[in-house]
Amino acid sequence: MPELRPTPSSTAPEVEFISAVNVRESSELHPRPGSGVDLAYLRRYARALEDGGFDYTLVAYGSQSFDPFTVAAALSQHTERIKPIIALRPNTMYPTVAAQQLATLDQLSHGRAVVHIISGGSDAEQASHGDYLTKDERYDRSEEFVEILRRAWTETAPFSHDGRYYRFDDFGPGFPTWSGTIPVSIGGSSAAAYRVGGRLGDIFGLWGEPLADTREQIDRVAEAARAAGRTDVPRIWVTFRPIVAATDALAWEKAEATLSAVEAAHASGFLPRRLRTSGRPQNAGSQRLLDIAARGDVHDRALWTRPAQVTNAAGASTALVGSYETVAAAILDYVELGASLVSVRGYDNLNDAIDYGRYVLPLVRDELAHRRATGRRGEVVAQPPLEAPKAAKADALVTA
Ligand SMILES: Cc1cc2nc3c(=O)[nH]c(=O)nc-3n(C[C@H](O)[C@H](O)[C@H](O)COP(=O)(O)O)c2cc1C
């Protein structure tokens, strides 16, 4: 195993894991008709995430989906630790109202609320809720929205605002959060996303791209943060759909079967409108994934782009395929690159979350604990160095 030596800043990077909540038992792998919420399933799913060691769960949003606030409130009352990440589109709610709702959720959950600001990647999807701004305008609006959220959580006296998208007089003082503020995540892969997320995000969300492309995006976000005069950078969140099994060979067999099921689900129109596109998608994140898929099916240690190809890169659509060890090693590659939040959501939602919690998360955490304790790459996960992208190490540990 190659040695690692600690840089002066010393400790190995930490990682936290994210899932995505499901309100009933239906997935691309096992599509079930209907659209209701199954509270028993939601509760079971959320508890499985906590038992498995997940830290957060995204409560995604689409014009045809359930309401993330209500789901997150229910989830928070059936769990103790997991933090719901509310996906929120600024066009759906006035920012002062959003601030109150998020603060209420934060109080109800004893400080567990997180918000992920979605500027909207499809004009048609936005128009279905009466939003006719261009994508760049939507990012500008997100910027104003986040600034208002933060003020609403912290101002101690009424305040007024007269901006480009929002105007109000004497709001508040608003409803306080549990512990001062609520982490704000911003996602996307366009220049506007980097600009707004780099300036205002506590977290920046990315889809799962090859290491070199991920590093390029991390650099763009850091550049934007610097340009905005920040002395810190947003935490980086990367997103994958892992397909794991006891051995690499078994995982690849499972991957091929999964791909056929996903393809069939998409062909049957199973997915909600926001994830159904034809032609070149409008959002930069999906465009990038399709271009990456055109460069090859497998990248780095385990990144598989075929699911992106068959879904027109709808949402989270790249997989990590391999044994528990291979996938843990692949996740560690991204942690070394600087990602500290890793979203792993499977295709057989609940069972995959249980598998990750049992077999993958502990490997990643144990390896990082070993590195922190010794300053050396351990053998919890066999992780032979990769070529070029690994050359640019995370701050904390470098290959000797
Ligand atoms: C991790 C992550 C989670 C996202 N979750 C959602 C979601 O729940 N609903 C949605 O409409 N868009 C979601 N998005 C999409 C974006 O936030 C963004 O609005 C869109 O991709 C526009 O992007 P662009 O900057 O890549 O062009 C998500 C993006 C990322 C990276």
- Largest sheet geometry: 8 strands, parallel, barrel
Q: What is the helix tally?
A: 13
Distance between the termini: 11 Å
Strand content: 15-25%
Query: What spatial form do the alpha-carbon principal axes imply?
Result: globular
Number of domains: 1
Order of helices and strands: EEHEHEHEHHEEEHEHEEHHEEHEHEHHE
Computed over alpha carbons, the radius of gyration is 21 Å
Structural class: alpha/beta
- Examine the secondary-structure arrangement and name the CATH architecture: Alpha-Beta Barrel
Sheet with most strands: strand arrangement: 2-3-4-5-8-9-10-15
Chain-averaged pLDDT = 91
Determine the CATH superfamily.
Answer: Luciferase-like domain
Helix content: 40-55%
Predict the CATH topology.
Answer: TIM Barrel
Give the names of the bound compounds: flavin mononucleotide
Strand segment count: 16
Please mark out the parts with pLDDT under 50 across 5 or more consecutive residues, or reply none: 1-10, 389-400
Describe this structure in words.
- α1 (39-52) packs parallel to α12, α2 (68-77) runs parallel beside α3 (95-108) and α5 packs parallel to α6 (191-200).
- The protein has 400 residues and is α/β, with parallel strands linked by helices.
- The chain has one domain (4-399): Alpha-Beta Barrel (TIM Barrel), CATH 3.20.20.30.
- The termini are close together.
- β9, α7 (211-227) and β10 form a beta-alpha-beta unit.
- Residues 1-10 and 389-400 have low confidence and may be disordered.
- Strands 2-3-4-5-8-9-10-15 form an eight-stranded parallel beta barrel, surrounded by five helices.
- It contains 13 helices and 16 strands.
- Flavin mononucleotide is lined by residues 60-62, 87, 116, 118-121, 187-190, 193, 205-207, 237, 239, 274, 283-285.
